Queue: 2 jobs
Job 1
Amino acid sequence: MTQRVAVVERITKVNDQLAEANRARLEAAGVFGLNIMASPGAGKTTLIERTLPLLAERLRVGVIDGDLATSLDAERAAAAGALAVQINTGGACHLDANMVAQGLEQLPLGEIDLLIVENVGNLICPTGFQLGTHRNVLVSSVPEGDDKPYKYPSSFSRMDAVLLNKTDLLPVCDFDLERFRRGVRTLNEGLAFLALSCKTGEGLPAWIDWIAAQVETSRKGR
Ligand code: MG
């Protein structure tokens, strides 16, 4: 058991060092990075598709898409106007800093201001691996239920922002918005909470403003 813990610690340490290198590389190129995580079907790719045209006048965006086997999501991001790179994890349930480093190799960092990383659909594994991005965003969605912050506390507490997607389904789901919000706040008082619907567009302007504010804050900090 002790040996196993030591191995896991070593893997995490190596990953953190690679993440630091990714961060330095992004900052040298003036690129701000977002890591978007969620369960399968929460709407990560659709969120990115909706986000890209709304940012087009303000920021040039690159996307690294993590997926088990296909390039479907990167194709959608590219069709929506981003410079997109697909990373196939070969079955692994999350991206790690080394995979993102390979993605960065393929992106012209001098031509983008914002890097969006779409992690593999999984609510647990991706949240334990730093990638070198500047902010962590978790997308939850109404059909998944209002108990998710209570059931996956370590995932939610590590985030800078939680988005609740598919609010258009609130009228047909037994979802207590206040219970969800309370769960998020209890875990992490400082994080941004945004409810939105990629289908109707409700709440998307606040999300775009949040991204723009994060990028601005980071530019001023340099
Ligand atoms: Mg996707």
Note: The longest helix spans residues 2-28.
Job 2
Amino acid sequence: MHNTLRLFLFILVFLSPFSRASAKSGFEVGKGAFTLDGEPFTVKAAELHYPRIPRPYWKQRIEMCKALGMNTICLYTFWNAHEPAPDVFDFSGQNDIRAFIELCQEEGLKVILRPGPYVCAEWEMGGLPWWLLRKDDIRLREDDPLFLERVGHFQEALAAQLQDLTADKGGPIIMIQVENEYGSYGKNKPYVAAIRDMLRKNFGPDVVLFQCDWSSNFLDNGLDDLVWTLNFGTGADIQAQFQPLVEVRPDSPLMCSEFWSGWFDKWGAEHETRPAADMTAGIAEMLSREISFSLYMTHGGTNWGHWAGANSPGYAPDVTSYDYDAPISESGRPTAKYFALRDTLAGYLPAGEKLPPLPDLIPSGEVRPFAFKEYAPLGQLHYKPKREVFIRPMEYFGQGFGSIIYSTTLPQLPAGTVLTVDEPHDFARVFIDGDEIGRLDRRMAQTTLSVPADVAAGSRLDILVEATGRINFGRAIKDYKGITTGVYATLPGLPSLELTGWDVYLLPDNLEFYETTAFAPLDSAVQRSSDGRLPAGIYRGTFVVEKAADTFLRFDTWGKGLVYVNGHPLGRIWHIGPQQTLYTPACWLNEGDNEILVLDIIGPSEALSEGVAEPILDDLRLSLPDEQAEMPALDSFRRVFEGPTQACSGWQTLEFTSPGRGRYVAIEALEAHDGGNIASIAEIYISTPGGLTVPRENWRASASSSEVGRNRTPEKAFDLQESTSWTSAPDAAYPHTLVIDLGAEYDLNALRLLPRMEPGAPAAIRNLKVSIR
Ligand code: GLA
């Protein structure tokens, strides 16, 4: 045979994703469809995350998905939960992924495995272990030798658990995902190929491997021998989403590997919801066209303990609940969305087939109000300090989570001296001789405060820094905690002085640390601060449960911190909301006495709680004016572009007619393509003359108006998520203005805009002016 022909046949047979189908597994990638045992098979997957569900409830949640009409469970693996320290692996209890997959199999469900190593998922650091950061120059999610070596160790340990559960070996795992949405991180086919090769080696040649990305970027890292699937949310124009894929691979089975049922919540932002009708319409459209899907999330569950991540650009930490406005609520109950979806799925069953009944629900109930009886104030804990000349981040001391206190002695400083904490990750309280002089919140990029009165030489500076979740999205995942660089004092007219000679006190987030603390009675003699709050500290209490039922413990009188019940880490609390209760599952409660510990780094107004039968996830309590960005006046801005845009649903670039330097960019929308009142932008990039884009990590935005209650705030125009948008308020007329603070000055020469993803790109801007300052 001619050599070229031979090579061609080799590629066709062995490398094409459409032949990767293993006759042995029964699950195959056929022409235009997946097949199971020779028959077309539409994957109807429910995304569930085993560490987010109490283990005793795994079966009930899986059965809820089955009763909904799903035939597959799709799951990530969470590397940092499985490998808490290098080469220390944990596949037990909540982490027993094999047991979870076997439960799926017992229920007759298939499984899609998404082993990362990076998973995003609103999970601490996107699933990567914090200890990778101990090597300062590590390049995460790249072909960095140490990173790949560590990924290799974890992937081997994982495969040792699951190797024999793939479909070709008679198990339920039909597909395995390579990396996760790499296109949102960069372009690096060699790295993605290295992850693929590990999975091939570990799981063998017969399992179907796939990649998932967005419609706008899947080609950037698409490997020829992998199946390509796309991610998009409810409301998206499904035909338009798949169009680019169909063009390059007309024979590919179509699959939306993450169809977002709802969305996640961030501290200090409105509770997110998505209409059920948009979700069911999308599912119905996919079913009618035999398009496979995974509904992300079908049941979100809970970010127990310190596992919630944070979004970027900027710093937007995720709340504890991962309810996600999903069809199955955080506590495993069917919602109105569930029943609507069940009806939709039932409508596409073959004649005569019926959905199984719902499993029993776990009852929910109340816990009578109770008061905490003991406390250990943070100021008096007996820690042993570490000594360092310069500031070091938390990781340097071998601590991954919790809080840290940095203390030093100050030189004489006049009132008005500016203290710069560069940078506080993520929330700092600053004290001089025990008096609080201010707080720094990373969400608002706060790094400086002024010394209010003259400071005598020898005064003590204490900076308490609490770590919230590590960023799980974009380049900012390399997210150190504590103070990352240094602390400086700047006297008017003088160069900055770096403060040195630090005593460092570690407050790790673990039960031993809390339990070994010396508690004192919490009585009326305990002093309150000027704002009426009790001291920051660890609070201990007992509450009585008569008959164990799921409950939601209230924390609306508390400050900010972490909660444990009977040794189980329930998660983070923060008075700003929107979440004000913590899901407390019956399976972790005792009938009789239950112990509760709360670390509160601000201090409660009342050290009380009670269990309620329904969660409070939408009570936002922003009180500080600087939590809302103000819109600057546009008088001093200079016009750089004025003109029309094209009517289209994709990206378009507007070159500035007079490029220039600036830190603020104002977009004045003058009219919409659809002739309506509303302006909307899904994503924006701004570029510099070399064709580089301005980094979006430190952007902040304000707008003339935003649609309230629909999660369409200004920063949604650059949150790296094409499925979310800034949208003006429905009752406000054109013109609409969006002003972006880029965080620093840049040379600016063009703007790239993406309208909304829904059919017809609603509220896309037709005419606009762009100005800079
Ligand atoms: C992306 C990621 C998921 C998750 C969703 C948003 O699709 O792949 O892990 O972060 O966004 O919930």
Note: The longest strand covers residues 652-672.
